[in-house]
Design a protein that fits this description.
The protein has about 650 residues and is α+β, with helices and mostly antiparallel strands. Among the domains are: about 5-180, no CATH class; about 180-310, no CATH class; about 565-640. About 65% of the residues lie in helices and about 5% in strands. The chain is flat and about 95 Å long.
C-alpha cells in the first residue's frame, strides 16, 4: 500500500467541506469547469496500486508544462482517448481538485471511480479505481479528468463591475487550514469521524497503536471483526464499499507492524484470514474488489513471522490447519513459503501432521471414488508436495497412485516417468489409464500415448488410439487427426475408406443419428459434407447434401462454392433460406435475409431473370408488409 493513500483518501473526503468553510458567505464557486455534483456519492473505494506512466520528464517540473490533449492521447491511445473525451463532454467528472502537483477527481461511469494524476520525481503517475486502471492502463476516466483540468476553472465574476478572479483551489484550502487554531482542526477531524465510519476506524487504530503503555490490540481485533463480518449478504453494488472498510482495517495491521508489534500482527492476521474465509461466501465480489486484500494478508503474516520468530512447532501446526482448511487458497504451499522461518524443527512438525492425516485416507480409484471432499483433495496435494521435495520418484508415484479416480492422475504419473527418461514405465501407466477409462474419450492421456508410440515407431498402435475416439464420436477434427497418424504409416487410403464407411453406417442408424444431432447440432449428412468440403471435393459434398441434407451453414458454403459454375444450385439454396429467416422476427435474421436477397438478385440478373426477381420481391413485400423493420432494411438495401 502506498504511504500517500491515506492522505489522498482524506483529501477527497474533505475537499468540498473545507472549501465551503474557507469561503463561507461568498457566492457559489465551482470546481473545474462544472459545478459541484450535489448527489451523495457511495463510499470511496481503496486506491489501487499506482501506475507508472512511460513519460519521463527532464526539465519540466509542473503539470502545466506537460499536460495537454496530445499527451493524454499518447498515454491512452486513440480508442480510450475518444471515450474519455465523450465522458468529459457529458460532464461525468466531479469534484475536481488540485493540490501542488496532484489532481484528484471522481468520474461517474458504471459506478463512481476515483482518479488521481500527479507528478513525482519528474515522472507522471496515474491511478484509477476502475478495472483497467488497476491493471495499469491509462483509462478513459484518467483522460476525462485530464481534459477537465486542462479546461481549468472558469473565471468567477461577482455582481456589478468587480474584477474577475479564478475559482477556488486546494492552495486556498491549505491557506485556510494554516490559519486555523490547533483545537479547531482537531474538532473538524473528530466531527468528520463521527459521520464517516471508515475514517473513524482509521483514527481509532492510529490512536490504539500509540498508547503510552503499549498498543491496544483489542481495538484492532474489533476493527477487523466489524469490517470483515458481513451479517447479511453483500451484493454487487455494496462490494466496493465493503472492500474499502476491510482494506482500511488491514492497513491498520500494517501500521501496527511498523510500530514493532510483530507477534500481535501474526495473531491478528490469522484471525483476519479466518474471518475473510467465511465472509467470502457471503459477498458478490464479481469485480475482484477483495483480490488485493487476499494477497496482502498472507504477505503481511509472512512479514510479521520473519520479525517475530514464533515458536516453530506452534507455527507449523497453525499453518497446517490454515492451509488444509482454506477454501480460497490461503497459505498454499505453506511449507515452502515458510521454510526458513520454520527451520528444521518446524518443517519436521509440519511433515508429521501431514503424514498423520494422510494415513487416515483410503486409496481411491474409478470404481471406489467417494463423493469429492475438498479437504481430502488438499491433503493429498500437500502430501505429494512433501514427497516431491524429497526427490524420490518411486515414492512420489506410490503416493499419487493412492488417487486414480481420474484419467489426469494416470497422465501426471506418466509424465513424471517420461521426464525422468523412463519411457517404458510412462507408457505402462498411460496404457493402464486408457484401460481403466476405456469407455471415455482418451483426451490428453491418449495424446500422450500417441506421441510416445510415435517416438518408438509404433504407428499402428497410435492410429488405434485415435480410431478409438473417432469410432465413438466421429468429427472433422478427429478425422483430420486420424489422417495425420495414418499418413505416417502410409495407410491413409485404407483408413479413410473405413472412416467414411463408419460415418455412413451411423447415418443409417436412426438412434445414432438422433444422438449425434442432439449432442453436436449436426443434421442430416452434415459431418460427411463437412469432411468432403475440407478435402476439396465440392461436387461429392453437394451430392451428399442433396441426398441426406445438412445444416444451413453448410448449405450456404456449398452455394457460394457452386455459384460460379452452377448458379441455379446456389439460387435454390439461397431462396429456400430467406423466408425462414424473415419468420424469426428479429433484426439479425432480417439482416441475414437481406444479404441472401442481394445474392439472389445478383444471380438472377446474371441469368437474365431480373423481371422475375422484381415480381418475387413485390410478392415478398406484400406478404411481410407488417414487419416494419424488415421493410426498412429492404429499403435501405434498395430492394424495396
Amino acid at each position: 500500500m502506498l504511504a500517500s493513500v491515506g492522505f489522498h483518501g482524506w483529501l477527497r473526503l474533505w475537499t468540498k467541506k473545507l472549501v465551503n468553510l474557507a469561503f463561507r458567505g461568498k457566492p457559489s464557486l465551482s470546481f473545474g469547469w462544472q459545478s459541484v455534483w450535489k448527489r451523495k456519492l457511495p463510499l470511496l473505494q481503496p486506491d489501487p496500486p499506482q501506475v507508472r506512466i512511460a513519460y519521463k520528464l527532464s526539465t519540466m517540473a509542473t503539470l502545466s508544462d506537460i499536460l495537454d490533449e496530445d499527451l493524454l492521447c499518447d498515454l491512452a491511445g486513440e480508442v480510450y482517448f475518444d471515450r474519455g473525451v465523450h465522458y468529459f463532454e457529458q460532464g461525468r467528472v466531479r469534484d475536481l481538485a488540485q493540490y501542488d502537483e496532484h489532481i484528484t477527481a471522481e468520474v461517474i461511469g458504471t459506478e463512481t471511480y476515483q482518479v488521481h494524476l500527479w507528478l513525482q520525481d519528474h515522472e507522471l503517475l496515474s491511478r484509477c479505481s476502475c478495472p483497467l486502471g488497476v491493471d495499469g492502463l491509462f483509462c478513459k476516466h484518467c483522460v476525462a479528468v485530464g481534459l477537465a483540468w486542462i479546461d481549468e476553472p472558469p473565471p468567477y465574476r461577482p455582481a456589478g463591475d468587480a474584477p474577475a478572479k479564478m475559482g477556488t483551489t486546494m492552495d486556498d484550502v491549505r491557506q485556510y487550514l494554516a490559519r486555523q487554531e490547533h483545537d479547531t482542526l482537531v474538532q473538524m477531524i473528530l466531527n468528520q469521524a463521527m459521520e464517516d465510519s471508515t475514517w473513524r476506524e482509521k483514527l481509532l487504530m492510529r490512536a490504539a497503536s500509540s498508547h503510552p503503555g503499549g498498543a491496544d490490540i483489542n481495538t484492532f481485533r474489533r476493527a477487523l471483526q466489524n469490517a470483515i463480518t458481513t451479517g447479511d449478504f453483500v451484493d454487487y453494488y455494496e462490494a466496493a464499499s465493503y472492500a474499502e472498510a476491510v482494506q482500511n482495517a488491514v492497513d491498520g495491521l500494517e501500521d501496527l507492524l511498523d510500530q514493532g508489534y510483530a507477534s500481535e500482527v501474526v495473531e491478528l492476521s490469522e484471525e483476519a484470514i479466518r474471518l475473510l474465509e467465511d465472509a467470502l461466501n457471503h459477498v458478490d465480489d464479481s469485480d475482484g474488489n477483495l483480490n488485493l486484500i487476499m494477497d496482502q494478508l498472507p504477505e503481511l503474516h509472512h512479514q510479521a513471522c520473519e520479525v517475530a520468530h514464533p515458536d516453530p512447532r506452534a507455527l507449523a501446526t497453525r499453518l497446517f490447519h490454515l492451509e488444509l482448511e482454506s477454501g480460497f487458497g490461503f497459505f498454499t504451499n505453506a511449507l515452502a513459503t515458510y521454510a526458513d522461518i520454520l527451520g528444521d524443527e518446524g518443517r519436521a512438525a509440519y511433515r508429521q501432521l501431514v503424514d498423520a492425516e494422510w494415513q487416515k485416507l483410503p486409496a481411491i480409484s474409478r470404481q471406489n471414488n467417494p463423493h469429492f471432499d475438498y479437504r481430502h483433495h488438499k491433503l493429498r496435494r500437500m502430501k505429494e508436495s512433501l514427497v516431491a521435495a524429497m526427490g524420490d520418484l518411486d515414492e512420489l508415484v506410490a503416493v499419487m497412485a493412492q488417487d486414480l479416480s481420474q484419467p489426469s492422475r494416470y497422465l501426471q504419473i506418466a509424465q513424471l516417468y517420461d521426464n525422468a527418461g523412463q519411457i517404458e514405465e510412462a507408457i505402462h501407466w498411460a496404457e493402464d489409464g486408457l484401460e481403466a477409462f476405456q469407455d471415455s474419450y482418451t483426451g490428453q492421456l491418449g495424446d500422450f500415448l500417441v506421441a510416445a508410440y510415435e517416438q518408438q515407431g509404433r504407428y499402428e498402435e497410435a492410429i488405434d488410439i485415435v480410431w478409438q475416439d473417432f469410432s465413438r464420436s466421429p468429427s472433422l477434427h478427429l478425422y483430420q487427426k486420424l489422417q495425420q497418424q495414418a499418413e505416417k504409416a502410409d495407410a491413409w487410403d485404407d483408413w479413410r475408406e473405413e472412416a467414411l464407411a463408419l460415418i455412413r453406417d451411423k447415418l443409417q442408424d436412426p438412434d445414432n443419428q438422433r444422438t449425434y444431432s442432439y449432442r453436436y447440432g449436426q443434421t442430416g449428412y452434415s459431418l460427411l459434407v463437412e469432411i468432403l468440403l475440407w478435402e476439396g471435393d465440392v461436387d461429392q459434398a453437394w451430392r451428399e447434401a442433396q441426398q441426406g441434407g445438412c445444416n444451413p451453414t453448410l448449405w450456404q458454403r456449398l452455394a457460394e462454392l457452386r455459384a460460379a459454375e452452377h448458379p441455379e444450385d446456389a439460387l435454390a439454396v439461397y431462396s429456400d433460406q430467406i423466408e425462414p429467416l424473415i419468420n424469426q422476427t428479429n433484426n439479425d435474421a432480417y439482416r441475414h435475409a437481406i444479404e441472401l436477397l442481394l445474392k439472389v438478385k445478383t444471380l438472377m440478373v446474371r441469368l437474365d431473370r431480373k423481371a422475375e426477381f422484381e415480381e418475387s420481391m413485390a410478392r415478398l413485400k406484400a406478404k411481410y408488409r407488417r414487419k416494419r423493420n424488415f421493410i426498412k432494411f429492404l429499403n435501405l438495401a434498395r430492394l424495396g
